[in-house]
Design goal:
The chain is mainly alpha-helical and 185 residues long. The chain has a domain of 122 residues. 63% of the residues lie in helices and 5% in strands. The chain contains 7 helices and 2 strands, in the order ααβαβαααα. Strands 1-2 form a two-stranded antiparallel ribbon. The radius of gyration is 21 Å and the shape is elongated. The model has no long low-confidence stretch (mean pLDDT 95).
Length: 185
């Protein structure tokens, strides 16, 4: 068994590499630019949302509890549409700093828990490819597979979900590469 303390460098380095890889993938490459659409008649929709007094939160529409789902009026609302979920953020300019800080903490958490699994399943001196295989799989599960839930439950377009899963695969492979390279001998 490998001590977690012996894995501090791959944990930090993997988080840093994934953080910068995500920057390249989202800011320099163009394949994520089609993920979001502009609202038709955005000002009219925004005015209606402001007039409704929405506050920060996650909304579902039409909204109905389990009993109401069977009512004809509720079924008609779903039939006529639109049907969706909507995230409302705090008003004001978007400051990327807090988002980037939270993303980096998430990268550290994934690297830490991946290291935890690896430390308990891979012996010191194990060859690069074996470490790479296990660590990449665990990291991919964290970064990639959870995105399926967004397509299933939140209705995110599958094209966007697949891109996020591919991103997660790349992050997992990068994490596996770092751990394979720096695995205790």
């Amino acid at each position: 068994m490998v001590s977690l303390a012996a894995l501090w460098l791959p944990i930090i380095l993997a988080a840093v590499i994934v953080f910068f890889a995500s920057f390249v993938m989202h800011m320099l490459l163009t394949y994520h630019r089609s993920d979001y659409k502009k609202l038709p008649d955005e000002e009219k929709v925004s005015s209606a949302l402001r007039a409704a007094g929405l506050t920060k939160g996650l909304y579902m529409f039409p909204f109905a509890d389990h009993k109401q789902m069977k009512e004809p009026a509720t079924q008609e609302k779903f039939k006529v549409g639109p049907v969706g979920t909507m995230t409302i953020r705090q008003s004001g300019a978007i400051n990327m700093g807090p988002f980037l800080a939270q993303w980096f903490v998430f990268c550290l958490l994934v690297a830490f828990f991946t290291a935890y699994v690896a430390a308990h399943t891979i012996a010191p001196g194990t060859n690069y490819l074996e470490v790479f295989r296990v660590v990449s799989t665990v990291a991919f599960m964290s970064y990639g597979l959870a995105n399926f839930a967004n397509g299933i439950w939140k209705g995110e377009p599958w094209s966007m979900v697949i891109k996020e899963i591919i991103d997660g695969l790349i992050y997992g492979l990068l994490t596996g590469g770092v751990f394979g390279w720096l695995w205790p001998r």
